[in-house]
User: Which sequence fits this backbone?
């Protein structure tokens, strides 16, 4: 019965694809081209130059300008991607070219560094630490009045009390001694200082940034670096969750790039002056996040501190033969793919990030906040959807905040800021409560939206050749403009073609100018935005050739089978399941490739599949 069910399901799926292909073209009155591309009425009407677009039911790519292929005549590999997040693995490649992997969950290396740093005590904190507990209180009495010590003891056990000021201390070494002694004697207290005045507070009322700043060994590097392994959660959510547990600001955690949500990923992150043992303790509470490979380093990781990413990908329910896969993979190696900004750049569920960016550039601050807090999203949990509905209908921040899950840190932050600023309703200031990196993501998404559309218009031609006025990279990697002599020389090819992103010092092409005009955005307004929203010009390659390291075919019987082990599963010794001999066998392609930073593996897969890579469309396909 099960075999018959799967056979019928496969036939029905194939029939549905054929029927959809036929019905969509007639129902929407699309015009087919020789490359099987179609023009949707609702996209081309806003542009003087039509954007050709392969529209599919529930597809989203055409909405952000993703419409062209590197090799338009290549037959597709029929398959499904990201059916399970365990089908997509990403490992960061650092600036030295090393592939980042989670290989251990203990703190062995970090512990050795700490021992070495403490072996040669060279500051007062380490010297005092050797004293027995009974003598610490006596040391404090030598530098702090007894009535203040009584107040400290009371504050340590009663967090509702206010902070306690300690009489000014002129000597720096004595102030350092007081900081350290209070921390050691009263575990619930933290201290800060301004000029010569030390103030003690209960830790319930201070950031952990303050708590961890005292007593750090001088010879120990100030940043704890580790591998962040995460699954089915994006980098920003993971960072937000970690910062909440550690009671620190999200922007105090360093990372090189944002990795996919529906994936298992490994990347480097850094924490300033947080002990490795404290971090490894989070592994007990975080099922979607694991931290490992701890060590101490001198510098924090910053955005862009990577050379690329390595991807291990499963394409399920493949219906073509090995020779056809070979043909498609070789074409990908030779011709590459159109280097679009992928759907992850725009929010793979709601697709709203570039719209928020547009509102910011239009300086519509209230609309921006309303979009972030109350905008509708696909596939959200009931509580979040309810909270958004409350905001849309009542604009009552208190009621919406009660319903909004705390994991929605951006929404929670904005709602709290709205309540705090309800007298002024200064929505520009309210938006400032979000981390700067988050706010930049929105305007960068709109910049990417413009670039995608510009490239699609540039490639909308039967003759794909370099033209006079095109920007290309020369043999030294410098950008130059094609002139008549360069075109005739035949020394430059489409793989050299670059298109600039819109920025303060770029000259937009006619397609971008047309799009800006249609969307009521002034070019001068973009160039005069405040520094935090300033867009900078970069020249992005139109075609990218991935390094395809390996590919193979593998049989499986059920969707629950994990076909590629993750870094964590390798540590845990989880073995790949054996294919059941009496089960209905399905075929998957296992693909390993590497891409430069800021390139999207889903866009490479799109070149192979010839189907919309959005989760909403892929969910309609059968992956059993």
Assistant:
């Amino acid at each position: 019965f099960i075999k018959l069910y799967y056979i019928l399901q496969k036939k029905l799926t194939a029939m549905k694809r054929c029927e959809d292909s036929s019905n969509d073209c007639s129902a929407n009155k699309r015009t087919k081209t020789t490359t099987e591309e179609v023009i949707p009425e609702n996209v081309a009407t806003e542009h003087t130059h039509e954007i050709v677009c392969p529209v599919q039911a529930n597809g989203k790519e055409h909405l952000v300008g993703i419409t062209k292929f590197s090799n338009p005549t290549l037959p597709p590999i029929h398959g499904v991607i990201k059916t399970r997040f365990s089908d997509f693995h990403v490992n960061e490649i650092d600036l030295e070219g090393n592939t980042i992997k989670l290989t251990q969950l203990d703190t062995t290396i970090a512990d050795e560094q700490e021992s070495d740093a403490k072996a040669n005590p060279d500051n007062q904190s380490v010297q005092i630490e050797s004293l027995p507990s009974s003598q610490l209180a006596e040391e404090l009495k030598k530098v702090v009045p007894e009535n203040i010590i009584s107040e400290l003891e009371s504050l340590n056990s009663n967090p509702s009390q206010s902070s306690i000021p300690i009489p000014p201390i002129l000597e720096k070494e004595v102030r350092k001694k007081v900081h350290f002694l209070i921390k050691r004697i009263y575990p619930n207290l933290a201290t800060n200082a301004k000029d010569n005045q030390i103030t003690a507070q209960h830790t319930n009322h201070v950031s952990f940034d303050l708590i961890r700043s005292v007593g750090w060994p001088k010879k120990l590097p100030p940043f704890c670096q580790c591998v962040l392994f995460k699954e089915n959660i994006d980098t920003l959510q993971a960072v937000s969750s970690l910062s909440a547990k550690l009671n620190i600001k999200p922007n105090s955690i360093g990372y090189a790039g944002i990795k996919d949500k529906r994936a298992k990923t490994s990347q480097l992150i850094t924490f300033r002056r947080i002990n490795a043992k404290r971090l490894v303790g989070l592994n007990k509470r975080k099922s979607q996040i694991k931290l490992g490979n701890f060590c101490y380093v001198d510098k924090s990781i910053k955005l862009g501190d990577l050379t690329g990413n390595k991807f291990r990908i499963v394409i399920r329910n493949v219906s073509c033969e090995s020779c056809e896969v070979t043909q498609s993979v070789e074409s990908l190696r030779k011709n590459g793919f159109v280097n679009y900004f992928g759907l992850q750049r725009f929010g793979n569920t709601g697709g709203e990030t570039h719209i928020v960016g547009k509102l910011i550039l239009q300086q519509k601050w209230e609309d921006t906040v309303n979009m972030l807090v109350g905008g509708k999203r696909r596939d959200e949990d009931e509580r979040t959807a309810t909270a958004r509905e409350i905001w849309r209908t009542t604009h009552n921040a208190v009621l919406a905040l009660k319903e909004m899950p705390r994991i929605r840190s951006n929404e929670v932050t904005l709602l709290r800021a709205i309540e705090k600023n309800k007298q002024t309703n200064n929505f520009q200031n309210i938006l400032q409560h979000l981390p700067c990196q988050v706010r930049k993501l929105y305007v960068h998404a709109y910049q990417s939206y413009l670039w995608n559309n510009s490239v699609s218009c540039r490639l909308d031609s039967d003759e794909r050749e370099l033209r006079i006025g095109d920007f290309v990279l020369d043999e030294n990697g410098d950008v130059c403009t094609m002139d008549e002599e360069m075109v005739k020389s035949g020394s430059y090819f489409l793989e050299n073609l670059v298109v600039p992103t819109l920025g303060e010092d770029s000259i937009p092409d006619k397609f971008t100018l047309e799009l800006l005009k249609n969307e009521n955005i002034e070019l001068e307004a973009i160039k005069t935005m405040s520094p935090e929203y300033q867009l900078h010009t970069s020249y992005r390659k139109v075609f990218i050739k991935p390094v395809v390291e390996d590919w193979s075919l593998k049989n499986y019987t059920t969707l629950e089978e994990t076909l590629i082990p993750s870094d964590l599963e390798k540590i845990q010794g989880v073995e790949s399941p054996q294919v059941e001999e009496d089960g209905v066998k399905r075929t998957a392609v296992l693909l390993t490739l590497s891409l430069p930073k800021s390139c999207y593996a889903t866009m490479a897969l799109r070149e192979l599949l010839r189907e919309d890579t959005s989760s909403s469309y892929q969910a309609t396909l059968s992956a059993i």
